[in-house]
Amino acid sequence: MNAHKKVALVTGANKGIGRATAEQLAALGMTVLVGARDARRGEQAAEELRAAGGDVHALTLDVTNPATVAESAEVIDERFSRLDILINNAGITGSGQVSPDQAHDQIPSTVDLDMVRAVFETNVFGVITVTNAMLPLLRRSSAARIVNVSSHAASMTLLSDPDGPFAGLLPSAAYTPSKSALCALTVQYANELRKDGILVNAVAPGYVDTDSNNHTGFLTPAQGAAVLIRLATLADDGPTGGFFGEDGPLPW
Ligand code: NAP
Q1: Among the atoms of ligand 1, which is closest to the Cα of residue 90?
Q2: Which CATH class is domain 7-249?
Q3: Beta 55-60 vs 199-203: how paired, if at all?
Q4: Domain ranges of the chain
Q5: Which of 46, 92, 163, 199 is the most exposed place for a label (fewest CB within 10 A)?
Q6: Is 207 assigned a catalytic role?
Q7: Closest ligand 1 atom to the C-alpha of 93?
């Protein structure tokens, strides 16, 4: 193993923004681990990225399944002894996840609580599971970075403005608060890990054309990935405990 080659793990990297992020990190010369809950989909994405010249390997990792997360950490330990970059990208929107009848119903007063739990399980608790399993490996890096993929919709400042740019968004008791919780969690990890030089930030990729929004987004996955790459490759004096979009800091 090349001791100077950075090792990066991207969760939910078999498609969408995660896959584009894996591709861009590989293009920067890093060893990239494509986390995917479905082994076949992960291997297929890794194969395609290898065919394009990347040093890319698949890891079967379901963020809601602690055993797969622990196994992934063991594999990284055995093969690479450390982790330099963790991108907590895996996420679900929740609409229709539990019952097709509930599709697109995240309205607080009528929401299906099981769907809310499922969304928080992936978007919030899954991030804690993965981050804590990977922290011993990240602590062995000389410049560890953690990027949590949130959303503009997580911004309570932007969403509470009735005349703001997000005034038209439907109220949500699941996806949107899960991403606000992820932002809150980002600050807590940043505060804990500041003394260790591990920089932890949340990012909003923008409205990106992926399966998660039935391809209604106007940015390409590569464009959405740009801000993830920027925060994953911060210099040692870079920010920690912040929330960033492509144009710079975002309000909480
Ligand atoms: P996507 O194409 O649906 O990709 C989501 C990825 O997460 C897929 O690889 C999916 O795997 C994976 N995933 C879901 N649950 C998982 C689990 N339990 N364990 C491991 N992986 C899991 O969506 P995307 O738009 O690229 O979303 C990526 C991130 O960006 C998400 O956190 C999303 O909330 C965030 N985001 C997206 C937008 C946007 O406009 N697209 C805007 C703001 C934020 P499967 O293929 O197995 O389902």
Answers
A1: 7
A2: alpha beta
A3: unpaired
A4: 7-249
A5: 163
A6: no
A7: 34
